[in-house]
Amino acid sequence: MHGARGALSSPGLPDVVTVPARQGLEAVDILRRGTGDRVGPVLHDDDCDTLGFLVPAGTADAWDVPGSTCTQTDGSATAPAAPEPAGEGGGWLLPPGGAEPATDPAVLRDALGEAARLLRAADSCR
What we know:
Residues 70-104 are annotated as: Disordered. By secondary structure, the protein is α+β, with helices and mostly antiparallel strands.
């Protein structure tokens, strides 16, 4: 079964949810405060423009969060490691090997929504 709910038990390589870095960093903070070690590995690109959250395989089939994309990995790596970050540079903000091999898509969806609301509020105070 694929999709956001069924993906948690799906075997295979993780999908990657990519978001703007500012929103992603806020979401990482939210996830670490609210769920502790349930946040999975997180990639950053060389320019630190985007973050990529590893999510269970199949998540891309049902991902519909505005301002983000979810893509399937190409099979070039073995779980829980993900493909190398796109481009020449980049790396791991939170490397594989923690308690969770991937972030729960429902939890990530909520954290990204909360992060977007917090950033809108902060930007409106300027």
